[in-house]
Design a protein that fits this description.
The chain is an alpha+beta fold. The protein has helices at residues 2-25, 28-57, 67-82, 99-118, 159-162, 165-173, and strands at 63-66, 85-90, 96-98, 124-131, 135-142, 177-183, 186-194. The strands form 2 sheets. Strands 2-4-5-7-6 form a 5-stranded mixed β-sheet, with helices on one face. Strands 1-3 form a two-stranded antiparallel ribbon. The longest helix is centred in the N-terminal third of the chain and has 30 residues, at 28-57.
Length: 196
C-alpha cells in the first residue's frame, strides 16, 4: 500500500512540475487555463499526502481518528475541491474511531462528495455520523439529480449498477452494510460500519 501511495505522489509531483514547465512556454491566454489545472494536481497531492501521513503516523489499533475534526477536515477539502456546500454533523461530538476505520471513512466521504457533484450535479452534501455500541452510522445525502433520467428506481435488476461501486467495495471490505436510496432529488447513502 505504501509503495503505491509513494509512487502516486511521485507521479503527481512529476506531472505538476511538467505542467509548470509547459505553462512557461504557452501564450498568456493558454497559460491562464493551465493554472487551475496545476492547482488541482496540487490539491490532489495534498489530500493524498494527508492520507498517507495520517495512516503511517498513527497505530491502527487505538482510537486515533477524531470524527468531528479529522472527518470534517477531509470532507471540507473534498467539498471545496468539488465546489459544493457541506453540512457535517457528528454525535457525540467526542466520537473517536480507530485510525484505520477513520482512513476508510475519509475515502468514503471523499468519493461520495465527488460522485454527488460529478454524476448528480449536486450543490449541497449533508453528512451525519453517529454510533451505537457496535456500529458507526454514516448518512450521506445530496441534493443532486440522482442517477439521471435514463435509470429507473423500479428496475430491480439494475440495483447493483445503481450503487457507487468503489464505496460499496470499501464498505464490504470493512464488513459493513450500505443502503442506497435515490430519486431525481438526490441520493442518500446509509452506511453501517462495525466498530470491532
Amino acid at each position: 500500500g505504501r509503495d503505491i501511495h509513494d509512487s502516486l505522489l511521485q507521479s503527481l509531483t512529476a506531472v505538476g512540475l511538467r505542467m509548470k514547465v509547459l505553462e512557461s512556454r504557452l501564450p498568456d491566454a493558454a497559460r491562464e487555463e493551465m493554472v487551475p489545472l496545476r492547482q488541482e494536481v496540487t490539491k490532489v497531492q495534498q489530500r493524498l499526502r494527508y492520507f498517507v501521513t495520517d495512516s503511517r503516523s498513527r497505530p491502527l489499533s487505538r482510537p486515533g481518528f477524531v470524527v468531528l475534526t479529522d472527518g470534517r477536515r477531509i470532507a471540507s477539502m473534498a467539498a471545496n475541491q468539488w465546489g459544493c456546500s457541506l453540512d457535517y454533523d457528528v454525535t457525540p461530538e467526542n466520537l473517536n474511531v480507530p485510525s484505520l476505520l477513520g482512513t476508510h471513512l475519509g475515502f468514503v466521504m471523499t468519493e461520495a462528495i465527488a460522485n454527488a457533484v460529478k454524476h448528480g450535479q449536486a450543490s449541497e452534501v449533508r453528512i451525519t455520523i453517529s454510533r451505537d455500541e457496535e456500529q458507526l452510522h454514516v448518512k450521506i445525502k445530496d441534493n443532486g439529480i440522482g442517477f439521471g433520467e435514463t435509470r429507473s428506481p423500479d428496475a430491480g435488476a439494475h440495483e447493483v449498477e445503481m450503487t457507487p461501486r468503489s464505496i460499496e467495495e470499501r464498505v464490504t471490505q470493512l464488513s459493513g452494510k450500505m443502503k442506497v436510496d435515490w430519486s431525481p432529488k438526490g441520493v442518500t447513502l446509509d452506511i453501517d460500519l462495525p466498530l470491532r
